[in-house]
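User: tokens in, sequence out, please.
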């Protein structure tokens, strides 16, 4: 893999790590921060998956549907076991971002979002570390 491609993978990884840190901070800061936290959970998972797409030589599409992104990866990296997590996290990108019926996720949904984001991020981190390293 050329150095430019490696840097793109690492850049997606760093953005995913940042979003995961924001999510953790938000969830530890109280109920009023849950909506932002679950958004960052979705973003962490999305960017981790996009890092894996780049790692596999695929330019990530401008798409926030985690199931679709994982489906693009399936011929290259088997992440089928994360489809449940992806399906749960995808609506977190928009469901609580705007005024409406429910403006904050409950604590259980927020904790599940973080758990699922961590799983996807951890898998991506391991694969990236194994294939190109993470400085």
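Assistant: Sequence out:
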């Amino acid at each position: 893999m050329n150095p430019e491609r490696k840097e793109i993978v690492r850049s997606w990884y760093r953005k995913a790590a940042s979003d995961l840190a924001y999510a953790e901070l938000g969830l530890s800061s109280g109920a009023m921060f849950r909506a932002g936290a679950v958004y960052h959970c979705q973003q962490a998972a999305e960017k981790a998956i996009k890092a894996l797409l780049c790692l596999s030589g695929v330019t990530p599409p401008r798409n926030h549907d985690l199931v679709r992104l994982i489906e693009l990866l399936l011929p290259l990296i088997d992440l089928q076991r994360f489809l449940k997590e992806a399906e749960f996290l995808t609506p977190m990108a928009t469901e609580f971002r705007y005024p409406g019926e429910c403006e904050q996720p409950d604590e259980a949904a927020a904790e599940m979002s973080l758990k699922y984001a961590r799983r996807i991020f951890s898998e991506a981190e391991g694969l990236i570390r194994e294939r190109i390293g993470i400085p």
